[in-house]
Design goal:
Blueprint: H1 5-16, E1 24-30, E2 38-42, E3 45-51, H2 59-73, H3 80-90, H4 93-106, H5 121-132, E4 141-144, E5 154-157, E6 162-165, H6 176-191, E7 195-197, E8 200-202, H7 206-212, H8 218-226
Parallel strand pairs: 1-3, 4-6
Antiparallel strand pairs: 2-3, 5-6, 7-8
Length: 231
């Protein structure tokens, strides 16, 4: 028998909170640019906002997400099988392809000029490209982040083919070695893409880790990163 999304969430809610009256349930499939989903309980209504990528997902996947979201809402421990089932679905090649296209079409990517106050990312990229990749790596979009993030010093966005470095690195007090290492690390993400195996997602593959060890003065760069000034 076919279960609606509301019925699935009602059943899961009753399983996790058997002594709590069932609230009104509202499911909304939204045009998100990623696979994020959200849940909140407000004035006796359980409001769930889910990426529209999952609108036609099989019932077991919707059930798994229901357990994940409601469990998180009420801080209930749930079986790891639900998270594994959900990750396996998102890691399917067809679903990843769909999410990739959505991020390209719907996502917004802020990119400042690669020329910072102290470092030029295009110059840095080309120097590392010739030093480590024989000058064969195609240059992606390059830019500095909006905020001076200390927790995310850089990232490669495959959907927009862009490398973004944290603006906190664009300071005279930050040694060139640190900026070079962060850029090199993100270039390796371009060279060795994330691999997916069932429910597993491997961001740093063995090939990635091997190539990272080839960076000269790696230990020194990592030590300098730990002592990075925040001002």
């Amino acid at each position: 028998m076919f279960e609606s999304s509301e019925e699935i969430y009602g059943r899961v809610f009753a399983d996790l909170k058997p002594r709590t009256p069932l609230p009104r349930i509202q499911i909304e499939f939204c045009r998100f640019a990623n696979a994020n989903s959200f849940i909140r309980l407000e004035e006796g209504r359980l409001h769930v906002r889910i990426t529209d990528v999952l609108q036609n997902a099989p019932a077991p996947i919707q059930e798994a997400l229901a357990y994940i979201l409601i469990g998180k809402l009420y801080r209930k421990a749930i079986s790891g099988n639900y998270a594994a089932r959900y990750r396996r679905y998102l890691n399917r090649a067809d679903v990843r392809g769909q999410l990739h296209m959505l991020r390209q079409a719907r996502g917004r990517k802020f990119l400042s000029s690669p020329q910072g106050e102290h470092y030029n990312l295009e110059t840095l990229f080309e120097e590392l490209n010739h030093q480590f990749f024989h000058g064969l790596m195609s240059r992606p979009a390059l830019g500095w982040s909006r905020r001076r993030s200390r927790t995310m010093l850089g990232h490669y966005d495959p959907s927009h083919n862009a490398i973004v470095l944290s603006r906190i690195l664009d300071q005279a007090s930050v040694p060139p070695l640190v900026v070079e290492y962060v850029m090199y690390h993100e270039m390796l993400h371009l060279r060795y893409p994330t691999e997916h195996h069932g429910a597993r997602r491997c961001v740093h593959t063995p090939e990635f880790k091997h190539a990272e060890k080839e960076f000269p003065r790696l230990k020194e760069a990592l030590a300098l990163l730990k002592a990075l000034p925040v001002g």
